[in-house]
Amino acid sequence: MPETQPARQKKPRLIVFDVEGIVIPKRRYLLFEASRRVTVLKFIKMLWAGLLYETGLIRLETALRRIYKQLQGLPIDDLFQLFNKIPLIPGVEEVFQKLKHAGYKTALISSGLPQIFVDELAKRLGADYAFGFELEAANGLVSGQIGGDSVRTEGKALIMKKVMEQERLTPSDCAVVADDRNNVPMFSLCSTRIGYNPDFLLAYKSDVVVKGDLIEVLPYLTAQTLPVQRSVSKRDLFRENIHIAGFFVAFFTMYLGLSRFWVAFAILMVTLVYVISELARMLGTNIPIVATITWNAALQPEVYEFVTAPIFFAVGIMLALLLFPPPISYASIAVFTLGDGFATIFGKSIGKHIFPYNKGKKVEGTLFGFFFAVLGAAVFVNPPRAVLGAATAMIIETIPTPINDNVTIPLAAGLAMLLLP
Is 334 found in the same domain as 255? Predict the structure, then answer.
């Protein structure tokens, strides 16, 4: 008999959605739409503010104030027209239609978008509530100043409390779907917490982690008992095969006697071509071959975003080549490419048991990843080093951290093998 997802004891009456990364592509508006109207220097300042927030060095409110300051003097109507051109994440309209038909109330709460923009999204999706920040203007032009609860640290939670009081709801009546740490304060206010392609903190805080199509959140929201579909899509296979193929970088570098420094330089050049291709794709121009590969390998939520995973993947391989001496450098690449790649494939296809500290990872996937990582590393180093490197890599792969695991896995595995006497 097919395994089924257990029905919840009580269905939520209000479902709150984060906006960027859930409803519309993450960071697409500010970095690739609104930035078209500013100078290169202002774009760099916007990008820098975003990076400081992503690394945890400044608060979201500080980052947003710096970003919108760079938009000072732009007509709000122009920004609004650019916003309306942004595509919705695949599956969003179907999710909201089904929730509305089933009698649920929905709310959109955004920290990164003005109220008028979120209102427009709510109208398109039929959401009952919409909240964004206050974008100040003078004579129809952006003043550069923003305000309101949603940009503050606990702001989203305050907004949610007001809605709950208005609807006379308790935590058991509410659910939230979000993707990053800015939404953590809302998690304590509801009994159903879903992380959709979440960052490291939400992967730990969520009751359920969903990766892939947004439509997959519905069974957890509507208390349906549906067969669990465990399968690896063509897109998943294509993506992970590229990941696994990275093993041959180490294999051919060693057995063909290539200079690892020149190989790292070649990877850097390919990465720069990829970055240019992604920038062009965001602006509506597809570079042949590169853009096609991206379209076929990207996850559904990434299709309309700047896909960063290949960049981190390339960085991980380059760092392994440059920081560790052969054959440790080659073994760390083997552990990284084979272990992480096969862990994803087997986790999605046969995984049943999740890690309590990272609900986006499956125990079965990690075990198979360990097995293939040992085999790959053993091509370059002795068995004890191969086992240690693989074990280190798979432990790091399961731990949610603020640093992309495409970087941490090869570095941790290489360091562990290097330090073994």
Answer: yes
Q: Token digits for 91?
A: 């599956």
Q: What's the pLDDT at 2?
A: 34
CATH of the domain at 104: 3.40.50.1000
Question: What would the pLDDT profile of 119-174 be if each residue is shown by its tens digit?
Answer: 999 999 999 999 999 989 888 899 989 988 888 888 899 999 999 999 999 999 99
User: What are the angstrom distances between the C-alpha of 69 and each of 42, 60, 65, 374?
Assistant: 9, 14, 6, 51
Residue 229, in any domain of the structure: no
Say yes or no: 109 and 195 in one domain: yes
Domain coverage including residue 72: 14-222
For 130-184, the three-class secondary structure string (H helix, E strand, C coil) is EEEEEEEEECCEEEEEEECHHHCCCHHHHHHHHHHHHHCCCHHHEEEEECCHHHH
Share of the chain above pLDDT 90, in %: 52
Looking at the structure, tell me whether residues 372 and 301 fall in a common domain.
Answer: yes
Residue 8 lies in a domain: no
Q: Is 211 exposed, middle or buried (0-12, 13-18, 19+ CB in 10 A)?
A: middle
Sheet holding 129-138, edge to edge: 141-147, 129-138, 105-114, 14-18, 174-178, 192-196, 208-210
Q: Which two tokens stand for residue 392?
A: 């280190």
pTM assigned to the model: 0.82
| Residue 138 sits in the same domain as residue 282 | no
Phi and psi, residue 209, nearest 5°: -115, 130
What total of structural domains would you count in the chain? 2
Buried b (16+ CB within 10 A) or exposed e, 316-331: bbbbbbeebeebbbbb
pLDDT winner (highest mean) among 6-15, 289-298, 341-350: 341-350
Same domain, 133 and 42: yes
Q: What share of the chain is helix, strand, coil (3-state, %, to 5)?
A: 60, 15, 30
Same domain, 398 and 264: yes
Query: What are 278-295's pLDDT values in tens digits?
Result: 888 877 788 888 888 887
Residue 1, judged by CB atoms within 10 A of its CB (0-12, 13-18, 19+), counts as exposed
What would the two tokens of residue 385 be? 């080093």
The residue among 222, 253, 285 that closes a domain is 222
Between CA 134 and CA 72 the distance in angstroms is 14
